[in-house]
Amino acid sequence: MIPTWRLRAAFARRLSDMYGAEVPAYTTLLEVSAQVNDEVIGKHGDAGRLGGIERVTAERHGAIRVGTPREMRQAAQIFAALGMRPVGFYDLREAAASSVPVVSTAFRPVEAEELERNPFRVFTSMLTTADRRFFDADLEGRLESFLDRRALFPSELLHLAAQAEREGELDETAAERFLTLAVAAFELSPEPVDRTWYAELERISAVAADIGGVASTHINHLTPRVLDIDELYRRMGERGITMIDRIQGPPRWDGPDVLLRQTSFRALSEARRFREADGSIGEGALRVRFGEVEARGIALTRAGRALYDELIGGPAGAWPLRFPRTERQLAAREMGFFRYEPAAGRPRDGQRPPQDLPGLLDGGWLNALPIVYEDFLPASAAGIFQSNLTEEGTRDRTAIGTHYDQQWLSEVLERPVHDPFDLYAAQQDRSLRQAREAIGLPKDAL
């Protein structure tokens, strides 16, 4: 029998192989990432504090786009078969200056031990067809009619996914069939694209056209993790790969790495077949797939995230002056999430450990090990989307946007959408209670 985590690892590996075969520049990205990671690990003995080389090498996040609540619910079923739960709600409509009419979540493992086994994530966006800033009533009706006619995921795949979620495993035959169907569902389709329909949607948003202008979905990018994203950015340029203008997320500095930094090579012009207005088939090209790469840092608490959001939109010089400069400061000021362990070391000579966390850290009673940020940043995701668009698209700024939120998404998916802050806090609090108890303090007194 093939357990959930092995299904997830096999799916991530096969998806990467498929994407590399379709997008050769992605293979270059993997090669450069591996070189940089090996060098960083060799030079810095503590590079593994944010994940060992085995995990970092295997780590990927994918991105897909769907058109309707039904498609989003079906995608959730497929990822549930892989032990991946919806985490976080992201509204890219508000985060992007360009026209990006989608809301998103990320499907990923939520337990620490499952993340260690294989931390595969898929950032999944859904078109907001009812938002009048982008789609008038006529276009909404035609778009939803088009989306309702298509089937992204075959019924056999959905049946196997439900079985895998229910039983937590599949036998080898079923697992092979599930993986074959799942990978095929995210391949770029060779079916001709209706040129007139695609162009109508593209005038509003290239993202909308990529979702609603074709009869299938596909992987938009598959992202490896790198331990020095600035060095990777430089080396990709040396290889002749055109990168986007900058690295999204926190600035480079000599303090702790936090949250997520991302960049990508620009979307590639790929040959596609088009159905013309007279029914004939012609040739053309689309730019919809690109190669993203990411560097992950420490997960921030709500207080840390609030300070990050304030500083990232302000003057560049404010960051080193106001953001905690060490992991110790992040922990003591409760701005970062850490896993706590009793410190091995000198005898305490009958001393009683202090009650407060800063005292426990300063006195050498506890060690703080950073918890890796496993999620995404709306502004950074929107920046990646936006930087790979050829046109900004259009929106009616006089219209009122349709409201979507995490509760709405939970109802659509018929399963809870986890709050990432709650997941990190639970992991931290559990470790702190256990560590306090191990050094003789009441575990719930802090």
Labels describing this entry:
2,3-Dihydroxybiphenyl 1,2-Dioxygenase, domain 1; 19 helices; three-stranded mixed sheet; five-stranded mixed sheet; globular; 446 residues; 2 domains; alpha+beta
Structure write-up:
With 446 residues, this protein is an alpha+beta fold. The protein has two domains: 2-298 and 376-415, 2,3-Dihydroxybiphenyl 1,2-Dioxygenase, domain 1; 303-369 and 431-438, no CATH class. The chain is 45% helix and 17% strand. It has a five-stranded mixed beta sheet with strand order 3-4-5-2-8. It has a three-stranded mixed beta sheet with strand order 7-10-11. Strand 10 and strand 11 form a beta hairpin.
Q: State the helical fraction.
A: 40-55%
Widest sheet: strand ordering = 3-4-5-2-8
- CATH level-two architecture of the largest domain: Roll
Distance between the termini: 44 Å
Question: Pairing-aware structural class of the strands and helices?
Answer: alpha+beta
Largest sheet, if any? 5 strands, mixed
What is the CATH H-level superfamily of the largest domain? Uncharacterised protein PF07063, DUF1338
Coarse morphology: globular
Low-confidence region ranges: none
Beta-strand content: 15-25%
What gyration radius follows from the Cα positions, in whole Å?
A: 23 Å
Number of domains: 2
CATH topology of the largest domain: 2,3-Dihydroxybiphenyl 1,2-Dioxygenase, domain 1
Average of pLDDT? 90
Number of helices: 19
Question: What's the CATH C level of the largest domain?
Answer: Alpha Beta
- Count of DSSP E strands? 14
